[in-house]
Amino acid sequence: MSDYAVELDDVAVRFRSKKREVTALREVTMRVEPGEFVAIVGPSGCGKSTLLKLASGLLAPSAGAVRLLGEEVTSPRKDVGYVFQKAALLEWRTARKNILLQAEMRHLPSARANERADELIAMTGLSGFADAYPHELSGGMQQRVALCRALLHRPPVLLMDEPFGALDALTREQMNVELRRIWQDTGTTVLLVTHSIAEAVYLADRVVMMTARPGSIAGVVDVNLPRERDYAKTMSEPEFGKATGQIRDHLGAAVAAE
Fold first, then answer.
1. Residues 98-115: pLDDT tens digits?
2. Would you state the pLDDT for residue 253?
3. Together in a domain, 228 and 150
4. 125: Cβ–Cβ under 8 A, 6 or more apart, which residues?
5. Is residue 203 part of a domain?
6. What is the number of alpha carbons within 13 Å of residue 214 lying toward its C-beta?
């Protein structure tokens, strides 16, 4: 059995229509260690979100193999958490009840689920807002609720698809700080798709860079920053500038090649 949390071996994804076949991904090989934080960046339409769907079992590869926690992925997996760009909360349920929706769907014991919800509400700074409805919460708070919902069942792998893209710059920074702290506290493996180079470097251990469609992995940047990262201080670190520069050069070349 593989020791990797997420593993893709020579994966391709092709979509067929009546008129043509479109290759979304080709020859993608990637390995993510347990407890690692990996960010994925690349041009729009290069297949970043498709990678997350493969890892979760929501999409089957056209070629190659996908493994999660050492097991081949052949159907949707229950042992992942998934956070999308939109919080997708149910307007008629309070923050707490939106979080507990995960427990209802998975038939988790009520007492244990409520205890875990309390823990996550405190961890994400939602204390005092548990009984608020989505329309009473800011965008950042709604995303905190979505993150709590994804973490309720203690998934060993958390998949995040541009979760902070719709937030204002200040709230996004705050969510970056919160996410990194939560990741350190939980030890969950995180795979994050983002269009923000700064966000990728601040959060991740490694940043995977993708080519334009058909997407493949063009390179990987190791982020050699301390595990404990103060946001403002990290932005001024030489290693931060070096890593963001490497990624920016790659993305610029990728766009120029389209």
1. 999 999 988 889 999 999
2. 55
3. no
4. 144, 178
5. yes
6. 13
